[in-house]
Amino acid sequence: MQIITIYPYGFGSNTYALTADGKTAVVIDPAQPRVADELKGRGLEAKFVLLTHCHFDHIGGTELLQERGAKVLCLDEEKPLFGTSADLCGLFGAPPVTFTIDQALCDNEEISLCGMRFRALHTAGHTKGSACYLCETQEGERYLFAGDTLFAGSIGRTDFPTGDMGAMRESLRRLCALDDMPVYAGHNEPTTLETEKKTNPFIIDL
Prior knowledge:
By secondary structure, the chain is of the alpha/beta class. The chain has one domain (2-199): Metallo-beta-lactamase, Chain A (4-Layer Sandwich), CATH 3.60.15.10. 20% of the residues lie in helices and 30% in strands. The chain has helices at 34-41, 56-59, 62-67, 89-92, 165-176, 193-199, and strands at 2-6, 15-19, 24-28, 45-50, 71-75, 103-105, 110-113, 116-122, 131-136, 142-147, 150-151, 154-155, 182-185, 191-192. The strands form 3 sheets. A 6-stranded mixed beta sheet has the order 1-2-3-4-5-6. Strands 7-8-9-10-13-14 form a 6-stranded mixed beta sheet. The chain has a two-stranded antiparallel ribbon with strand order 11-12. The relative contact order is 0.14.
């Protein structure tokens, strides 16, 4: 499996395109419309979009990918928040993004997409229905795509609508119970769960 990181221009989240065959891709949090052309330039077709949460800086490229045929998935608890003030478009002056959720996933639900296996983890705290996606390749490698739940050395904010620090701490405990694996976050550089367990100030006191 290849993990392609598309960093944002200006303000936005990291976008991750995952491909097992070099032709089709699962895109996690397409932050900006230019993601579609980035994929096209690499010869990749986005078949699925996995959204970690509803905030505008993670969803800006979703509408265009859906227009080009991608199916959009999120956690069921987050689905009602898309298209509401919880997306923070109004608060930050971002243009609204219009798309539909094709499939809502339950906590711990596993799904095979483009030859890769994903498990949706409900990790409330940053938003009510925030999700992390645990991806397992056919070779047995595992990767965690953490959205804005966990960063290298930090965590996501909990002072936006539906955020909750108590829920965030419970979600972090859940992640810490997992075996070590690389962590790809919505912002900043990759890390590992083991590193965060040892050094992240928001985790070491859990």
